[in-house]
TrEMBL record:
SUPFAM superfamilies: Aldolase, Dimeric alpha+beta barrel. Gene3D superfamilies: 3.30.70.100, Aldolase class I. It comes from the Bacteria. The lineage of its organism: Bacteria, Pseudomonadati, Pseudomonadota, Hydrogenophilia, Hydrogenophilia incertae sedis. GO terms for biological process: carbohydrate metabolic process. InterPro entries: Aldolase_TIM, Class_II_FBP_aldolase, Dabb, Dimeric_a/b-barrel, FBA_II. One of its GO terms (molecular function) is zinc ion binding. This is Ketose-bisphosphate aldolase. Residues 297-388 form the Stress-response A/B barrel domain.
């Protein structure tokens, strides 16, 4: 059950003045460690999958494991696409199970960032999925992820932030006030006055990218000024690498499983540590009470076809699969036949929606309307349609 609405989770953190850690995953060890750290501290958690890391794993293979782990958790969990490059990435992530997305067009001019982000918001909101945008640019300095974010930092303007939120409709905003991707060199100069002005202008949850290396007091000041989500990866990567190096030093002939045996424990410990710093420790039960459970919907259509040869039926179904899958929020389209010839209905469409919001989106979407009116209903007058909200 603890897969919850991302917007509810951030709203609770924003009201109660704590931050939820968004921990980027690069494999099952990180997935298990992030959840173990959250469970150990009774903290809500965001399982984050950054598009910049897709070269390290197969996104379509890892996502089912993330969804299964989220449903098994006893603390509130959201599944988030981090640094999505555009609409196509967002569509894919939602189809595979993400219930929150971020589009990163922060490197573009303001008007282009607005246009790209607004396009994503329109699609994602039709699926019931909230969107994180980014204004300003958080550059990389050094470390594993730094090369993914080249160039100079651009600080977020409070005035532009207000216009950006008004023109895009994003649910939360990542801002640039002095943090960096990767490791810090020296001490950062965080512009808390700027952050306070942004928070006052927007009144929505704010997000910090590049959380590694900040001091505990700096995290607390960020949270006091509206930050409700903190992205955190480099320190986890460093903890994992240190565990591998230690294992190799202790046993130079160690095999792979011995080398990575301490990775989960090291990452879990760092997740638990920062959850305490972020103020999320011990918040799981209150957050769970404040959040709606995230539930998929099964759109079921049972019917008896008429006037179709087997060859026509095959083409009819293939067209339906292709066209219905284009509707925002449709995660899967299946067709089937009754096992017994005496069943009341002989055929079924089973269409999996990301959320309840997709019911209305699907009903009026041109692809569904065209297929249903011109192809399906003329050949399936005997039919029954029911939408089921699925239990977690």
């Amino acid at each position: 059950m603890p897969l919850v609405h991302f917007s509810d989770l951030l709203s609770h953190a924003y009201r109660e003045r704590y931050a939820v850690g968004a921990f980027d995953l690069v494999g099952l060890e990180f997935l298990e460690a992030a959840l173990a750290g959250a469970e150990a501290t009774r903290s809500p958690v965001i399982l984050s999958l950054a598009e910049s890391h897709f070269e390290h794993y197969d996104f379509e293979v890892l996502m089912p494991a993330v969804v299964a782990a989220a449903h098994r958790a006893t603390v509130p969990v959201a599944i988030h696409l981090d640094h999505g490059s555009g609409l196509e990435s967002v569509q894919r992530a939602i189809r595979l199970g993400a219930n929150a997305v971020m589009v990163d067009a922060s490197h573009l001019p303001f008007a282009d960032n607005v246009a790209c982000t607004r396009e994503v918001v329109e699609f994602a909101h039709a699926c019931g999925v909230p969107v994180e945008g980014e204004l300003g640019y958080v550059a990389g300095v050094e470390g594993e992820d730094a090369e993914k974010h080249p160039g100079e930092a651009i600080y977020t303007s409070p005035e532009e932030a207000r216009l950006f939120v008004e023109q895009t409709g994003v649910d939360c905003l990542a801002v640039s006030i002095g943090t960096v991707h990767g490791r810090l060199r020296g001490r950062p100069r965080l512009d808390f006055e700027r952050l306070a002005r942004i928070n006052s202008a927007l009144g929505i949850p704010l997000v910090i990218h590049g959380g590694t290396g900040l001091e505990d007091g700096e995290f607390r000041r960020l949270i006091e000024n509206g930050v409700a989500k903190i992205n955190y990866y480099t320190a986890l990567s460093d903890a994992a690498a240190a565990a591998v190096r230690e294992a190799a030093a202790q046993d130079p002939k160690a095999g792979y499983t011995r080398l990575i045996a301490g990775v989960r424990r090291a990452v879990q410990a760092e997740v638990a540590r920062v959850n305490t710093v972020f103020g999320s420790a011990g918040r799981a039960e209150a957050a769970l009470a404040a959040c709606r459970p995230w539930r998929e919907v099964a759109h079921v259509v049972v019917f008896n076809p008429n006037d179709l040869s087997p060859e026509e039926m095959e083409g009819w179904i293939a067209e339906g699969r292709e066209r219905l899958a284009r509707v925002p929020g449709v995660r899967r389209v299946d067709a089937g036949q009754a096992l017994t010839p005496h069943a009341r209905y002989q055929r079924v469409w089973l269409v999996r929606f990301a959320s309840r919001a997709v019911v209305d989106t699907y009903a009026r979407h041109p692809e569904h309307v065209a297929y249903a009116d011109r192809r399906f209903r003329p050949h399936a007058a005997d039919r029954l349609t029911i939408d089921f909200e699925l239990e977690p």
